[in-house]
Amino acid sequence: MVRKRASRQLGGFAAAILAWILCSVSVGLPHWRVWCFQEPMDSKPSITLVGMWKTCVQHQESNSTISTVCYPYTYEDTFIPLDIRVAQHLLLVSSFLGMVATVSVFAVLWKLFSGKLPKKATHNPFVFPGLLNIIAGSFIFLSALYNYLSIIRKAGIAFPPYFRTPSFPDTQKVGSALVMATFSSFLFLVGGTISLSFTLSRRSHIHSNI
């Protein structure tokens, strides 16, 4: 009976895995903020992709081709704004917490379905990974919120001269990596909530037997 009640934990486990994958992929992509320039010139890019760990600048060449040059960040770079610095650390912590939570849920599910979990146990074995998933989802949400606010405020970045991009774009819009991270935070929260909800199901089963 307990195994049947834990079947929905498999859905939460799948949601958490997908969330961790999306989080890990979005961290490495530069498509968090898309800077657009209306009249590209030799000294002005057509599009600049601002990511959490690198910025990619696209220039329109004379033969109508677009060249892309990416500049990764280092901890010595002083031009990186505080919101990106904070988001960098939050995303790294979230990715680590998501990985630990995924391993923990897998271990609990294996014990549960193999019958190695103590039958008389009254505690929720999914509490630890559930809390980790919720914390990871909250951190990713804060990182995404920082970027959404920067786009709304049309915040600029004082890039060094060799980036060949202005400090302020003509327009800013949300990038695909930012959408991916936002969806990741939602899936983390869903997976964590499902894990924590196992406590009520377990208790109700115990009371029904009594």
Q: What key attributes describe this structure?
A:
single chain; disordered C terminus; Butyryl-CoA Dehydrogenase, subunit A, domain 3; 210 residues; 5 helices; alpha+beta
**Integer tally of domains:** 1
Secondary structure tally, helices: 5
Query: What is the N-to-C order of secondary-structure elements (H for helix, E for strand)?
Result: HHEEEEHHEH
- Rounded mean pLDDT is 84
Radius of gyration: 22 Å
Percent of residues in β-strands: 5-15%
Largest sheet: 5 strands, antiparallel
Number of strands: 5
Q: Would you write up a description of this structure?
A:
This protein has helices at 2-5, 7-28, 82-113, 127-152, 176-209; strands at 33-36, 47-50, 54-60, 66-72, 171-174. A 5-stranded antiparallel β-sheet has the order 4-3-2-1-5. Mean pLDDT is 84; it is low at 200-210. Helix 2 packs antiparallel against helix 3 and helix 3 (82-113) runs antiparallel to helix 4 (127-152). By secondary structure, the chain is α+β, with helices and mostly antiparallel strands. It starts with a helix and ends with a helix. The chain contains 5 helices and 5 strands, in the order ααββββααβα. It has one domain: Butyryl-CoA Dehydrogenase, subunit A, domain 3 (Up-down Bundle), CATH 1.20.140. The longest helix is centred in the last third of the chain and has 34 residues, at 176-209. A hairpin with a 3-residue loop joins strand 2 and strand 3.
